[in-house]
Amino acid sequence: MFKDLFSKKRKYATIPSERTQPTKMNDGVMTKCPTCKTIMYSRELKKHDYVCTKCDHHFRLTARDRINSVIDVGSFEELDVSLLSGNPLDFPDYEDKLASDQQKTGLNEAIITGRGQMEGLPVVIGVMDPRFRMASMGTVVGEKIKRAIETALEDRVPFIMFSASGGARMQEGVLSLMQMAKTSVALQRLDEEQLPFISIMTHPTTGGVSASFASLGDYNFAEPRALIGFAGRRIIEQTIREELPEDFQTAEFLLEHGQLDKVIHRSEMKSTLTTILKMHQASHQRGGELSS
Amino acid sequence: MTHKLPFEKPVVELQNKIDELKNFTQDKDINLEEEIAHLEGRLQQVESQIYDNLKPWERVQIARHAERPTTLDYIEHLFTDFIELHGDRYYGDDDAIVGGIAFYKGQPVTIIGHQRGRNTKENIQRNFGMPHPEGYRKALRLMHQANKFNRPIITLIDTKGAFPGKAAEERGQSEAIARNLLEMASFTVPSIGIVIGEGGSGGALALGVVNRMFMLENSTYSVISPEGAAAILWKDATQAQRAAETMKITAPDLYELGVIEGVIREVRGGAHHNVKQQAEYIDSVLKQQMDELTQLSKEEIRNQRYEKFSKIGM
Predict the structure, then answer these.
(1) What is the reported pTM?
(2) In whole angstroms, what separates CA A112 from the centre of its chain?
(3) Touching check for A259 and chain B: CB below 8 Å?
(4) Of B173, B154, B69, nearest to B115 (Cα)?
(5) What is the DSSP string of B76-105?
(6) Residue A64 C-alpha, separation from nearest chain B C-alpha, in angstroms
(7) Helix (H) or strand (E) holding A180
(8) Cα separation, B269 vs B248, whole angstroms
(9) Looking at the partner chain, which of A138, A185, A239 has a beta carbon nearest the beta carbon of B164?
(10) Quick one: DSSP state of residue A257?
């Protein structure tokens, strides 16, 4: 029965013949900051990588915008674009929900992965997009992350992951849970090959995603005020019947409790990551010299 | 007599009737043997109707049965010379996870499992089998030790989930679980897992990155509890029964989905009816798996585990 497991060809994910349309931007002229309520020009906000110019509130970024904000122009090469989720549990309405999010976001799934460069240094990067099913991790998200890690292994380059996720995808049940194992098992290989993994947790990174790859960086970073945690605030409050501090499960709270290396402002993200990449490249070359 | 579940009512009623008749004939000079035999035949029919066709929600109830055997019950029946080892060496000792070393048919092994309480007092001590980060870190420490000394690892899974609490978050519940997933992939010793009760989400998976995973017939393994799923999907926790069916969480479901390697049969009506017999059912599977896995090289052990998790869902 054990051997059967490997011989079975399961078709949970399929590859479509046509690619979907690229992301359409939401084009309101003015945008209101949810934190300080300042109203500003959307164009101005975009110029500042969607950080409020008054109070530093970090707006959520679409995966495309995120890639544009950290990857050198023209260097991005997307991987596994057309991997599509099936409905392995025959979960009611799941296909409709996927189709509606695909339409809304112009994405096939909740993550974009690909090769790219940061100031000329090659990386493999994955970016989750919370507009798509709250970027919950189902089979395709897990598979794309695993394949991205395997690409980093092949290319022998660092792996960078921008997480933003509500956790496991309910509609794929235990198969979603198993993606936590799948991604972590792949990261173990990266670890063994001494290739760096930089994890950046953005708002929000919770549940099964925070309890798997997102917490496994050689460097664990986060954006300011990002919500990061294992269990939901409401569940904890019900369990312990106690008010939680206001900053509970924010990036700053985690930093204070030793769970993060650094909280990084979006405007400094690319330069900080690039500095780390340069250090790795330098010590890698030095390692080569020492052993030769 | 064990505590009975609501769906077992017809069985209980018939059994009571039979007992009543038997008592009645004891002190009176009436022969009711024919009636009793008839009823006993009927009882068998009813039992097989109910127990051989358990619905997902009924399995959930059996998996959660207060008298369902726990990790320590099985350790007692399956292993010899068990020595429990304590503490994560960072913060504390978590009684929601027990771990230690023992012999399995002469072979030294490391055993780790979630531990529920068997009564209220024990449940408070063991936090209802819901671990904090120190539990997972203790488990990881013991697994590293097993790997270092070339001992196979056996994990028994039985938790509603990792504890959702303030202290758990502060000490890095996410990281503790994630770290176990990654490190368990690196071991070169064979690892075998068995879900003996509830396999609740990440808190269960943190002991579940093993070469071979089995489930007892009436255990469950899921990304979220049926109540939690119902609350999220239909904003109504009372829909748990419907969620249990939709979410595919029973042992036969998981086998069908290719997530586990096999289902271990249970004593009719559930493991709590006969722990010793249940331990024997587990023993025969465990022995076969140990025999197979100990034939593999260290590299094969690791690759097999990697391949297995790599493929799930695709």
Answers:
(1) 0.91
(2) 8
(3) yes
(4) B69
(5) HHH-EEEEE----SSS---TTEEEEEEEET
(6) 26
(7) helix A173-192
(8) 21
(9) A239
(10) T
| Residues from chain B contacting residue A249 (CB–CB below 8 Å) | 169
**Domain map (residue ranges) of chain A:** 21-59, 60-291
| Helical (H) or strand (E) element with B183 | helix B173-184
Find the closest chain A residue to B214 by CA distance: A2
Phi then psi dihedrals of residue A243, to 5 deg: -70, 135
3-state secondary structure of A284: helix
A contacts of B223 (beta carbons < 8 Å)? 168, 170, 172-174, 176-177, 208
Contacts of A18 (CB under 8 A, 6+ apart): none
Distance CA A103, CA A95 (A): 12
Is residue B307 very low, low, confident or very high in pLDDT (cuts 50, 70, 90)? very high
Q: Around A20, how many Cα atoms within 13 Å sit in the side-chain half-sphere?
A: 20
The verdict on B224 touching A (C-beta cutoff 8 Å) is yes
Q: Sort out which chain A residues have CB atoms less than 8 A from B262's CB and list them.
A: 1-2
Strands B212-216 and B191-200: parallel
Put simply, the answer to whether A213 touches B168 (Cβ < 8 Å) is: no
Q: Do B314 and A216 touch (CB under 8 A)?
A: no
B28-55 pLDDT, tens digit per residue, is 777 888 888 888 899 999 988 899 889 9
Interface of B with A in 123-182 (CB under 8 A): 162-166, 168-175, 177-179, 181-182
Concatenate the DSSP letters of all residues of B42-77 into one string: HHHHHHHHHHTT--HHHHHHHHT-TTS--HHHHHHH
Looking at the domain covering A60-291, what would its CATH class be?
alpha beta
Count of residues for chain B?
314
Q: Name the one residue in this structure whose structure tokens are 């990857």.
A: A71
Q: Which residues pair with B103 in a beta bridge?
A: B80, B108
Return the beta strands (E) in chain B as ranges. Answer: 80-84, 97-104, 107-114, 153-159, 191-200, 212-216, 220-222, 262-264
Q: Are A249 and A233 in contact (CB under 8 A)?
A: yes
**B150-162 pLDDT, tens digit each:** 999 999 999 999 9
A230:B177 CB<8 A: yes
User: What confidence tens digit (pLDDT) does each residue in A173-232 have?
Assistant: 999 999 999 999 999 999 999 999 999 999 999 999 999 999 999 999 999 999 999 998
Kindly report the nearest CA distance between residue B243 and chain A, in angstroms: 10
Q: Which residues of A touch B259 (CB under 8 A)?
A: 174-175, 178
Dihedral sign for Cα A243, A246, A251, A252, please: negative
B191 SS3 class: strand
